[in-house]
Write a structure and sequence with these properties.
Layout lengths: L1 E3 L2 E5 L6 H15 L3 E6 L5 H14 L3 E7 L2 H11 L4 E4 L8 E7 L8 H13 L3 H7 L7 E3 L3 H12 L10 E5 L8 H8 L3 E4 L22 H4 L4 E4 L8 E3 L9 H13 L10 E5 L5 H6 L5 E5 L3 H10 L4 E4 L4 E4 L8 H15 L3 H6 L5 E8 L3 H14 L5 E2 L4 E4 L5 E6 L5 E8 L2 H22 L12 E2 L2
Parallel strand pairs: 3-4, 3-5, 4-7, 8-9, 8-10, 12-13, 12-14
Antiparallel strand pairs: 1-2, 2-6, 5-6, 10-11, 14-15, 16-20, 16-21, 17-18, 18-19, 19-20
């Protein structure tokens, strides 16, 4: 089981058994003390069983439950404010493989809980002392489950909030791949309401066409399908991510999603523009964002990876626009203070419709970078922590950004990021360069650093690592 600031995740029925899930739901209720909580799930085979366990845990603590059924995570977070409840639990493995699942915890403002709250929940889980709270809750008359549907409310709210569609009928033909996940109906309904014609593929939850994570490898089958249409959109299983496929069949790096949203704010003064003259992105986000905003006097502020880290930086600096470009995650704090792939889709479609341009033409005018994404399996967490500690000690603050990982920035602007994953037992390595030849050299440099560090930490340990890491590019 992997515990992060947003919740818990692991292999369903092995790490996340129903009793573990019920006990974590009870721990959430013990710490947060909610009167009511909203619940949503993705479409994984394990999600219904884990939802019932979650509801059982909440009911045992006297919590009133609103059940949204299959729902994108951003819609569940919207429902917190719409229904006036005290928090949410989403049962979704997000981008992880089908055998995984997770509980994501939110607060009463519709944002992921903070790390210190998660630490209290974990402590309560392991201590397991719920007796006094259960006795108190027996006196409450809140032990009930209510089925609720907020799809239309959510979609209408986003369309009104974006504001493009008062004057624009987005007459575009769009291919949607919802990853056979929770946005199977939602994204298409939203786009039809603004005048688009949609083709929705990969809609059978029992037989998803691809991995849930929308990468260039998993989306390869869409290239020819999108050609001849105006745009392709791809989500992960809970629709907090969005990756774009252009009209000429090119699968764009996830950073382009955030880049296009920022362009809409800068060029069209969407929602009054970027009023704080700042945007917040995580440290794995492309240099592309800096290039786009530099002529507007907008500052890019970096945060650690993780949605709550980005949100906290946005709050600290009073920033309305931000996200995690590295995964196609867009956050518009004023509209929905969470990564929202459906909101991002509406903004980008509105932007393209207003410009009257194809996506392939728009990206021609944008800087181009290339990236590699790789994962090195390291199940020994102690070894992984020692590797990161040694790497951090090898670089000073002038050479690197140290925010939950190590981002080494070279003189030519190319960069490498080493970071332990918060969702898998792996070391993630991301590199970005201006062209393919520089990227090859950058990748070699990254592995030279990693091998040298591993040998310093545990001589001979490099022999246990595969020569062929998991490639994501």
């Amino acid at each position: 089981m992997i515990i992060s600031s947003s919740g818990i995740r692991g292999i369903a029925f092995r790490d996340l058994s129903p009793d573990v899930v019920a006990k974590f739901a009870m721990s959430y209720a013990e710490v947060m003390d909610p009167d009511s909580v909203v619940i949503g799930t993705d479409t994984r085979p394990s999600s219904d069983v884990l939802k019932e366990a979650t509801i059982s845990g909440l009911l045992s603590m006297g919590v009133k439950v609103y059940d949204l059924g299959i729902s994108p995570t951003p819609m569940v977070f919207y429902a917190i404010r719409k229904l006036g409840v005290d928090g949410a639990i989403v049962i979704t493995g997000s981008h992880n493989p089908i055998e995984w699942n997770a509980l994501k915890f939110a607060d009463s403002e519709g944002m992921f809980i903070r790390k210190e709250i998660m630490d209290q929940i974990v402590k309560t889980y392991y201590e397991g002392n719920f007796k006094s709270k259960v006795q108190h809750c027996l006196n409450k008359r809140l032990r009930s489950v209510h089925k609720v549907n907020v799809i239309d409310d959510y979609i209408n709210y986003l369309i009104r909030a974006v504001g493009y569609f008062d004057k624009i009928n987005a007459n575009m033909r769009i291919v949607i791949d919802p990853a056979a996940g929770s946005a199977i109906k939602v994204t298409a309904i939203a786009l039809k309401k603004i005048g688009c014609r949609t083709i929705v593929v990969n809609t059978d939850p029992t037989n998803p066409f691809r991995d849930y994570e929308p990468t260039s490898r998993s989306l390869m089958y869409l290239k020819d399908l999108v050609k001849g249409n105006d745009l392709g959109l791809a989500h992960d299983s809970d629709a907090d991510r969005l990756v774009l496929i252009s009209d000429d069949g090119k699968i764009l790096d996830p950073d382009y999603t955030l880049a296009l949203v920022i362009k809409a704010f800068l060029e069209d003064s969407l929602l009054g523009g970027i009023q704080s003259n700042k945007v917040v992105v995580n440290i794995a986000t492309s240099q592309l964002i800096k290039d786009i905003v530099k002529d507007y006097g907008v500052e890019v502020i970096y945060s650690d990876i993780g949605e709550r880290n980005v949100i906290d930086a946005m709050i600290k600096h009073n920033v309305e626009v931000g996200g995690e470009g590295s995964c196609g995650g867009v956050i518009i704090r004023r509209i929905n203070p969470t990564r929202d792939g459906i909101l991002a889709a509406l903004i980008i479609v509105g932007y393209l419709a207003r410009k009257g341009k194809k996506l392939s033409r728009v990206i021609q005018d944008m800087p181009r970078y290339v990236k590699f994404h790789e994962k090195i399996p390291i199940k020994n967490r102690k070894l992984l922590n020692e590797i990161m500690k040694q790497m951090n000690n090898s670089f000073n603050s002038r050479e690197a950004i140290k925010l939950g990982g190590l981002k080494i920035i070279l003189d030519n602007g190319n960069w490498i990021l080493f970071r332990p994953s918060g969702t898998e037992p792996v070391l993630r390595i991301i590199g970005e360069a201006r062209n393919e030849s520089e990227l090859v050299k950058l990748r070699k440099y990254a592995y030279d650093i990693l091998k040298k560090t591993i040998e310093e930490v545990e001589p001979g340990a490099t022999r246990v690592f595969s020569s062929y890491p998991i490639r994501e590019r």
